[in-house]
Design brief:
This protein is mainly α. The chain has eight helices and no strands.
Length: 175
């Protein structure tokens, strides 16, 4: 638990633990369970009502479609919020504050990848199998966005020379 606190709350003083990585994973799982439950409930409801006039009259199938779509959208939004929080807030100290700060050859991407690997282990052990691919894809998108932000908008502390492209290219292949 000490490692997780170090990783996910580094440098913060007033952290709301309801927005920590494990809690986001639980919320994603909850949305997944709601979506699965809606499918079962829809089948039961329609089979009990049969092809009666009331299923079409009240638009029961449409209401279930909207609810299932809302569940999928909830998973998407939670995944995106979680990954951008992890990359740009929780791992900021290794990405924004550390990567290529000063001399490129002395501040490589390995520390960021080690911390990211810890996050991925938590995600893989917590998130439901049916949505894990989506969540991991979001994490990778955010990490590439962070990497590009460091390269393109790093500020004066990150002055790249022509020779640095070899090191950055190697790091990009690792990411």
């Amino acid at each position: 638990m000490t490692d997780q606190r170090r990783i996910f709350h580094h440098g913060t003083t007033n952290v709301d633990s309801s927005f920590a990585l494990p809690q986001f994973c639980v919320r994603i799982n909850t949305m997944q369970r709601i979506g699965m439950g809606l499918k079962v409930l829809e089948k039961r409801t329609i089979s009990r009502l049969g092809n009666s006039k009331s299923t079409k009259e009240y638009g029961i199938e449409d209401k279930f479609k909207l609810s299932k779509a809302a569940s999928v959208e909830g998973i998407r939004q939670l995944s995106e919020a979680m990954t951008y929080k992890v990359i740009f807030q929780d791992l900021r100290y290794v990405l924004w504050d550390g990567l290529y700060f000063g001399e490129v050859s002395s501040t490589r991407i390995e520390p960021f990848l080690e911390e990211l690997n810890q996050c991925l282990k938590i995600i893989l052990s917590t998130v439901h199998d049916r949505v894990i691919t989506h969540v991991i894809t979001e994490v990778m998108k955010a990490s590439f966005d962070g990497f590009l932000l460091v390269l393109l908008a790093g500020g004066p502390a990150r002055a790249f020379s022509l020779e640095d492209h070899v090191i950055i290219e190697e790091d990009f292949k690792l990411d």
